Amino acid sequence: MDAMSIVKAVVLAVVEGATEFIPVSSTGHQLLVGHFIGFQSPNNTFEVLIQLGAILAILAVYFRRLLGIATAFPSDPNARRFVFGILLAFLPAAIIGGLFSKYIKYYLFNPWIVCATLVAGGLVLLVLDETELEVKKRDVFDFTLPMDFRIGLFQCIAMIPGVSRSGATIVGAMLMGADKRSATEFSFYLAIPTMAGAFAKDLLDNYKNLSQDDFGLIAIGFVVAFLSAFLVVRTVLDYVSSHGFRLFAWWRIIVGSLGFAGLILVG
């Protein structure tokens, strides 16, 4: 584990934490950054496992709310409906990820695909931000179970790197009547089982292929991803409520376009 490997791991972890909960695709950014700085991990395991740091950032920021939901669960039907709704939304990704994750990594984890989906997703966000959609839901606890499940189907689109898990769920929720803030907040809650499941499966599939140095880099990446994600989660809801998704849309388009240019010029 040399100094350069540590620097590259820190860079990727900052990228992971900063982009995981905004609709720009953390996986897409990590694949592009990793490609251009020359960072490789066995079967992209580093990029998946450091997501645990981002998960813990959500748990830290939402600790009181999650504790309140847990304590209310036995007696409050709204709390139970919300928990079942999150699990229902998680189910499609759990099934598809469990069955096809190896094929998705093999065929789709490609920087050209990432650049294309970054640009396309940016255009979708621009259109969505300018469209006056009817708002029916302003609180994640008011989402219905069928709505939760359909949002989970949208999340499956994010199996394609560069699409963005949070972006897909936010777009799906808004098309079903959620306002920007509640759509974004729902994506936070849904991230907990989704990312935890991806972490557990990837660790189970690949831990035998990881060296001591790999585990050391993952530990560093975990801490850095936690810190950067913690800062983002504490600020992004207020930003989205006030400014929408236009900044993220243009960021995707610019990064995707620069990625195309880099792949053409550098390879």
Describe the structure.
This protein has helices spanning 3-19, 26-37, 45-49, 51-61, 63-72, 77-108, 111-130, 145-156, 165-175, 180-206, 212-243, 246-265. The chain has 267 residues and is an all-alpha fold. Helix 10 runs antiparallel to helix 11. The chain is globular, with a radius of gyration of 18 Å. It starts with a helix and ends with a helix.
Round the Cα radius of gyration to an integer and report it: 18 Å
Question: What's the end-to-end separation, in Å?
Answer: 26 Å
Number of helical segments with 4 or more residues: 12
Low-pLDDT runs = none
Strand content range:
under 5%
Largest beta sheet, briefly? none
**What share of residues is helical?**
over 70%
Overall body shape:
globular
Main structural class: mainly alpha
Strand element count: 0
In sequence order, what are the helices and strands, one letter per element? HHHHHHHHHHHH
Average pLDDT for all residues:
91
Compact description:
The protein is mainly α and 267 residues long.
Present the secondary structure layout.
Layout: H1 3-19, H2 26-37, H3 45-49, H4 51-61, H5 63-72, H6 77-108, H7 111-130, H8 145-156, H9 165-175, H10 180-206, H11 212-243, H12 246-265
Helix pairs in contact: 1-2, 1-11, 2-7, 4-10, 4-11, 6-8, 6-10, 7-12, 8-9, 9-10, 10-11
What descriptive keywords fit this protein?
267 residues; mainly alpha
